[in-house]
Amino acid sequence: MTVEDGHHDADVAARTERGWATLSVAILVILTLLAAFAGIHRATMPQPRVETTDPSRLHLSGEFVESNLGSLLEPNGAVTVRAIGQQYSFTPSCILVPAQTPITLRATSADVVHGMLIQGTNINTMLVPGYISQQFIRFEKTGDYLMPCQEFCSFGHEGMWGKVKVIDKAEFTSRAKNGGRLSCVGE
Ligand code: CUA
């Protein structure tokens, strides 16, 4: 190998290296632009569905008055559960639902931000005062599930626990015949 050849090889190597460096910078720039576009685009669009409520009047009127909290068997056979979180409990503290039934869980907070997590399921939502959190769930089997508050909501947070009790569909239907809202508080 002559000296000329050595220079030539170094040129090729430098060119190749520059090529790859340019490519990787270009990829970084494209990714940054994509992330910025996605973030800005999302932030400037309204959320697809926002439902609000007045936390100071929850107990006085509207969907979350005390007599409307708990589980309701709808005419179509589905179940709607309404609950509120407040420092430091859920109302109802024991949610009663049937197995093998589509359930809509609607909840909000009466004071500060709480969390609602049903262990062993994918239900995990924040309860923000002024907003309604809606989740859909279906339990295949009967059983009990713990439902802790998973957002720190001040000194009583650790003691804020609820429960979900899943019972047989037929039993739920017969209990729902008397009307009203069902729960398992005190059972
Ligand atoms: Cu409520 Cu933590």
Task: Tell me what portion of residues adopts beta-strand conformation.
Answer: 25-35%
Radius of gyration: 27 Å
Oligomeric organization of the protein chains: single chain
Q: Say which molecules are bound, naming each kind only once.
A: dinuclear copper ion
Which regions are unreliable across 5 or more consecutive residues at pLDDT < 50? none
Output mean pLDDT. Answer: 91
The tally of helices reads 2
Share of helical residues: 25-40%
- What overall form do the CA principal axes indicate? elongated
| CA-CA gap between termini | 91 Å
Largest sheet descriptor = 5 strands, mixed
Order of helices and strands: HEEEEEEEEEEH
Given helix and strand content, the structural type is alpha+beta
Count of individual beta strands? 10
Structure commentary:
This protein has about 190 residues and is of the alpha+beta class. The chain is built from 2 helices and 10 strands; from the N terminus they run αββββββββββα. The protein has helices spanning about 5-45, 170-175, and strands at about 70-75, 80-85, 90, 95-100, 105-110, 115, 125, 135, 145-150, 160-165. Strands 1, 2, 3, 5 and 8 form a 5-stranded mixed sheet that branches. Strands 4-10-9 form a 3-stranded mixed sheet. Strand 1 and strand 2 form a beta hairpin. The longest helix is centred in the first third of the chain and has 42 residues, at about 5-45. It is elongated, with a radius of gyration of 27 Å. The mean pLDDT is about 90. Dinuclear copper ion binds next to loops.
Compact description:
The chain has 187 residues and is an alpha+beta fold.
